[in-house]
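In the laboratory, one determines a bound structure by crystallizing the protein with its ligand and collecting diffraction data. In a computational setting the workflow is compressed into a single prediction: the sequence and the ligand go in, and a structural description comes out. We illustrate the idea with guanosine-5'-monophosphate.
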Amino acid sequence: MRELEERMRHDGAVRPGNVLKVDSFLNHGCDMQLYQHMADEWARRLAGEKVDKVLTIETSGIGLACVTALALGCPTVVFARKKESQNLQGSQWRTSVHSYTHNRDYTVVVEKKLLNPNERIVIVDDFLANGSAAEGLLDLCKQAHAEVVAMCFAIEKSFQPGRNILCEQGIRVESLARISSMDATTGEITFISDESEA
Ligand code: 5GP
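The predicted complex, in structure-token form:
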């Protein structure tokens, strides 16, 4: 999606360790017009699919998931929580996720009553990198016997293994900006769309 790619080039910052900062428009400050355009693009790609729920993970995915649910005409957003609630043990689907940005493992949970068998789920998140967050959300859906229609990411770092891990499991991946490489010294970001146009 050209608009997102241009915004990343203009306002994103490449940090050492292959981390892209997009705080001014995607996951701290949120540009709602851009969000709307991203959601509209996913709705276009998923036209004709019945979607019961949009699932995401706190915190950065929540705003994006809400706008996307509205664009999809889907009534409910559920976000997986990173904090455990001790007195609700047993009533939650839970899984473990490794945080790429914080380099630690944490448990994520969803109330069992919020994810049900045969529900058709679209998963939305800001980034796909190594795929740990995505696999965690997928695992929650598997435990609930819910069906994953597609996984939608604003930004995919295609040089990391997340996409392949998901595609090998037959999951439909819809990323709006796919980075083939980025350089912390020059700040340059190259997209897969640049290569296909060359
Ligand atoms: P994964 O589990 O696929 O390795 O990483 C996905 C999660 O890590 C995303 O939800 C996102 O919050 C965070 N993340 C991964 N790479 C980046 C990055 O380059 N920049 C930012 N801002 N977050 C990232």
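The longest helix spans residues 32-45. Keep in mind that any predicted model is a hypothesis to be tested, not a measurement.
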